């Protein structure tokens, strides 16, 4: 029960009315008067924060400022990077194929080629004769 009383008192404090008066320091004349409560001030500050964040994001997204963000490049640079990556991958595979080829040539010249003899039997039907 005590917790609900605390929540009610907090809500009551948020809804208490206050007056903000701006006065001229020389003449003590009231320049502007505002009637506020804590809840309205809180909502106004949150709204201002959200609007500022939205404007900042919009400014970055829809203007050339986005190109100053590290890691963000233009579309042409991105396409060129993809083409260079594809070219590097193909060159890397060609280097691997050439290394395998030269290793095979080196093994053949040094006589280290493993000889695999085919020892399986060939089943020739009896009706056919080989031509020699």
Concise account of the structure shown:
This protein is mainly alpha-helical and 132 residues long. It has helices at residues 2-15, 38-62, 75-110; strands at residues 17-23, 30-37. The chain is 57% helix and 11% strand.
Describe the structure in your own words.
With 132 residues, the protein is mainly α. It folds into 2 domains: 10-68, no CATH class; 73-110. It contains 3 helices and 2 strands. It has a two-stranded antiparallel ribbon.
Strand runs, count? 2
Give helix % range: 55-70%
What order do the helices and strands follow? HEEHH
Task: Enumerate how many helices there are, as a single number.
Answer: 3
Low-confidence stretches: none
What structural class do helix, strand and pairing data support? mainly alpha
Strand content: 5-15%
- Arithmetic mean of pLDDT: 86
Number of domains: 2
The end-to-end distance, rounded to whole angstroms, is: 110 Å
Q: How is the biggest beta sheet arranged?
A: 2 strands, antiparallel
Query: Regarding quaternary structure, how should these chains be classified?
Result: single chain
The largest sheet has its strands arranged as 1-2
How do the strands and helices of this protein lay out in sequence?
Elements lengths: L1 H14 L1 E7 L6 E8 H25 L12 H36 L22
Antiparallel strand pairs: 1-2
Task: Kindly list the characteristics that best describe this protein.
mainly alpha, 2 domains, two-stranded antiparallel sheet, 132 residues, elongated
